[in-house]
Amino acid sequence: MTVYSALVGCGGMGLRHAHGYFELRKHFADVKMVAVCDLHESAADYVASAVEAATGDRPAVFTDFDRMLDEQKPLDMVDIVTDTRMHHVFAVKALDAGVNVLTEKPMGITVRACQAMRAAAARSGKSLSVAENYRRDPMNRLAKALIDGGAIGEPYYIFKAGLSGGSALMHDTAWRGLKSRGGFLIDGGVHESDLLLYFMGEVETIYAVTGLFTPMRKRQGGLVGNLVPFYQHRTEDVFAGQSTVEIDQEDTAFAVLRFASGAIGTYASSNASHGYHVGVNTVHGSSGTIQLPPSRSGIGPRIHLEGREEPIEGDDLLSLVPDWELDDLTAPFWDGARRLSSYDQDFPATDRKIIGLEYLELARAIETGSTLEVGPDTGMEALAISYGTLESGLSGQPVRMSELLEGEVEEYQSEINESAGL
Ligand SMILES: NC(=O)c1ccc[n+]([C@@H]2O[C@H](COP(=O)([O-])OP(=O)(O)OC[C@H]3O[C@@H](n4cnc5c(N)ncnc54)[C@H](O)[C@@H]3O)[C@@H](O)[C@H]2O)c1
Question: Which of 71, 83, 334, 348 is 20 to 30 A from 400 via CA?
Fold first, then answer.
């Protein structure tokens, strides 16, 4: 069976998804990208040309999603990679038209948007998968196997602190500073929320303080680092031409969490850390501590046990989890390797392997009905943790996950819901 796919949103991440599709095609030829869509024809054209150069087939180019959904036949899945405010709009339309959905994270712009997406998946019987890439890194798979296998004893505390940024705009994209479009603590924060869920299980309560400390952000005049090749063709749609942008979503949060297991955690996040960056990711257990890997770096986890001077790292970790291996869908992307304790390749190679896997997982679910790792419930829970931080920051009160998921706590989100017509 061939799974016919269309991509909507041909900006930076849209191009990265096209590269994920190329990677997928190296191993499995039964997914075909037949259409691409972006408000900006030049961006859609750019990605269509990249697909043509890599596969020999040029996808049809659209600038209107509704038209694409109507005219592109057959169509089995849409891959939604627009900025976050459109995820629910396109997902609900696609699902109601009987088309399966892969959506970038955050699943939706608010918890209410996620509820609408989940309801559409349920009534259509079609699949909705959230492209949460961090957990799919083989090093995070290994870290989870070590924690679940008791390598640090009973885990009781997770410590996550990521303080970076400064006065620059994240990814040099202005929408990332806007509350109505999913600012930094949502766009970047949801990755961390998903990892909190992945490593520690369900969250019960969140208490946080939050603030906006660097509202005036300088445009960098282009990206630096790993993302340069992916963001040059995109068109800025807000504050275009302005060298300084005023953002309106909080840029810093400090949260304490209690998990259903009884474990606790602290989560500190900022993209207003000037001149010095901090990254700490550890899980502490009754007999040791694990340093979690920096996602997509290739660096493996490291374990420190009480009473042992040297940390356990590299292949020595594998003997602690004799049964752990990458699953049948993941291993082909890693040259067939089943057991890895580190890997060495550039960021784009890692990125496209993981995105290729996200495509494959949904394609297999369409073909065989297999379950999705990050479906609507998990995608919504991750977003609820991120909004829980902002809701608690606004009210000054602890919030319960059950209230966030039921929509009983949504004061912070109300203005966003209103502007999105939710
Ligand atoms: N998983 C990750 O590591 C990761 C990394 C970056 C971005 N993302 C996610 O991917 C999504 C896109 O981010 P990005 O960095 O590519 O942003 P971007 O601004 O570069 O690209 C978004 C694209 O969507 C298009 N678009 C917006 N509204 C549209 C509409 N109504 N119809 C058609 N096209 C429309 C824009 O024109 C733009 O080209 C976001 O949800 C973001 O959170 C995920």
Answer: 83
- Quick one: CATH architecture of 137-341? 2-Layer Sandwich (3.30)
Beta bridge partners of 159: 266, 282
Torsions phi, psi for 204 (to 5 deg): -100, -50
CB neighbourhood size of 305 (10 A): 16
Cβ distance 183 to 247 under 8 Å? yes
pTM greater than 0.90 (yes/no): yes
333: Cβ contacts below 8 Å, ≥ 6 apart? 23, 27, 353, 354, 356, 357
Q: What is the per-residue pLDDT across 276-307, written as a single tens digit (0 to 9) for each? A: 999 999 999 999 999 999 999 999 999 999 99
Protein residues whose CB sits closer than 6 Å to any atom of ligand 1: 8-14, 37-40, 43, 65, 81-84, 86, 104-105, 131, 133, 171, 173, 187, 234, 237
Give the length of the chain. Answer: 422
Rounded distance, CA 382 to CA 373, Å? 13
Long-range Cβ contact pairs of 120-125 (< 8 A, separation 24 or more): 120/91, 120/92, 120/95, 120/96, 121/95, 121/375, 121/376, 123/95, 123/96, 124/95, 124/96, 124/98
pLDDT per position as a tens digit, 19-30: 999 999 998 889
On the question of pLDDT at 236 being above 90, the answer is no
Centre of ligand 1 to C-alpha 45, Å, is: 16
Selection from 200, 166, 176 nearest residue 278 by Cα: 166
Q: Whose CA is nearest to atom 34 of ligand 1?
A: 38
Give me the residue spans of the domains in the chain. 3-134+354-373, 137-341
First to last CA, the chain: 37
Atom of ligand 1 minimally distant from the CA of 351 = 3
Q: CA 239 → CA 42, 81, 244, 251, distances in Å?
A: 19, 21, 8, 19
Q: Which two tokens stand for residue 251?
A: 């840029």
CATH number for 3-134+354-373: choose from 3.40.50.300, 3.40.50.970, 3.40.50.720, 3.40.50.150.
3.40.50.720
